[in-house]
Amino acid sequence: MKENVRVRLSIFMWVAIAILFVATGVYAFSNMSTEAIAQHSQVHAELLPIASPESVDMDSRRLARIDALIEGYIADGEFPGAVVGVMRHGKVVYRKSFGKRHTVGGSEDMTLDTRFDLASLTKPVAVATSIMQLVERGEITLGDRVDKYIPRFKGWATNENPRDTVNIRIADLMTHTSGLPAYVSPKRLRTTYPYAQFPCRDSVIHYISTCDRVATARTTKVYSCLNYITLAYIVEKVTGMPIDEYAEQNIFKPLGMHNTCYKPTKEYSQHVAPTSIENGKFLRGVVNDPLAREGMGSVSGNAGLYSTLDDLLLYSAMLLNKGSLGDAEILSPRATNAIMTRPRGYERFNRTLGWEHFDMCSQTGGDLLSNATIGHTGATGTSIVIDPELDVVVIMLTNRPHVTSKRFPLEIRSKLATIVGSAVRE
Fold first, then answer.
1. In 3D, which of 423, 351, 367 has the Cα closest to residue 56?
2. pLDDT digits over 75-88, tens only?
3. Domain edges within the chain
4. Of the candidates 150, 238, 223, which has an alpha carbon nearest to the alpha carbon of residue 376?
5. Is 137 exposed, middle or buried (0-12, 13-18, 19+ CB in 10 A)?
6. pTM for the full model?
7. Which of 131, 130, 113, 128 is nearest to 42 (CA)?
8. Phi, psi dihedrals of residue 352, rounded to the nearest 5°
9. HSE of 197 in the Cβ direction (CA atoms, 13 Å)?
10. For the structural domain made of 53-423, what CATH number should be given?
C-alpha cells in the first residue's frame, strides 16, 4: 500500500514538473516579439520596464524598420556602431546595439552598456537642468544679468549711444540669443593668453566675458558653446560646486544614473566608445571637444559628460513625468514645462531653455512627431528627441568621429524619428 502511494506521488510530481516546463515555454514564446524589439540587459527594470510596442499602442512591424536603417548607415561607413532606444508611456519598447565600438586596429562589439562621450548633450542634461533647479529654488532668475555673477561681463553697446548697453541675461544664454560667438579654439586662447597654463578655466571665462559680441542680445540666434560654459560657471558661483559635482549630487545620483559622469576613470573608460584618433591614439575617456578638454580641463558646460543609453532613458522619463521619477524629484512640474517650451519673448528663435524646439519638419525630430517635440544633438553623433504630446523618446548614440571627420549625416536622425512616429497608433 505504501509502495502505491509513493508511486502515485512520484507520478504527480513528474506531471507537475512537465506542466511547469510547458507553461514556461509558452510564456517565453509569447514574449519573443518583445525580445526581438528590446534587447535585455541591465535596464532599470523597476523604473523603465521593457514592454511590447503593442502594449503602448505602437506597431512593432513599423518600429522594426529601425534595424535596416541603422545597419545601412553602418555598412556605408558613416559610423562604426550605435545604440538606439525608444520609449513610450514610461516603457522601453526598442533597445538595441549595432555594429562595433571601434574598427581601427582590431574591433570590439558595440554593447548596450557602452558609455559615450555625449558632446553637446551635456548642455541640456547637465547644465540646463541645473540652472532650472536654481531658478525654481529662487536662487537665480532667468532675467538676471550675467554681470551680476561675472563682473565686467560685457553686453552690447548700441550704435546710437555707446553708453546704452544691451545686457546679456541668463535666458539669453540658455536660448543661444546672447550674441556671443559660436566658439573659440584653444589655439586662439593660447595666443590671447600666452602666459596662462592651459587648461585654464579663468582664461576661458575672461575671454568669454570680454570678446567681441556678434549681435545684440535677443535679436538673433547663434548656437554657441560659450553660452553654456558661462552657465556652468554661474552654477558654480551660486552653489560653490563645479558643474560635475553639482550635477552628480542633484541630478544623476538621485535618478540612479550611475553610469553618467565627467572625467571618467580608467576602469570606466574601458567601456567607452572611442571618438577621434589623435597622434595615432584613440580618444577614449578623453573629451573629444577641444575647448572643453584643452581650455576647461574636461569639466565644462558645453561638453565633457559621458553616459549610457539606459541612463539617458531615465533622464528623459523624468522630463516626461513632470520632473520626477520614482522617489527622485529633480524639477517641479512648472520648471519641467518651462524646459520643454519656448519662453515668453523668445518664441521666434525655436529654442526652449536648453533644447531645440521643432516645427513640423526637422533634421532631428523627423516629419511625423508632434509640433511639441524637443531635442538636442552632440557632435560625436549623439541625439535625444522627446515628444511630450505623444509621450515618446528616441535616443541614438554613435561615435562617428572615430571613422570620419566629415559632417554627421543629419538625415538619419530625421529618418529614425519618422520611423518611430509612424509606429505610433494613438
1. 423
2. 998 899 999 999 99
3. 53-423
4. 223
5. exposed
6. 0.88
7. 113
8. -95, -170
9. 0
10. 3.40.710.10
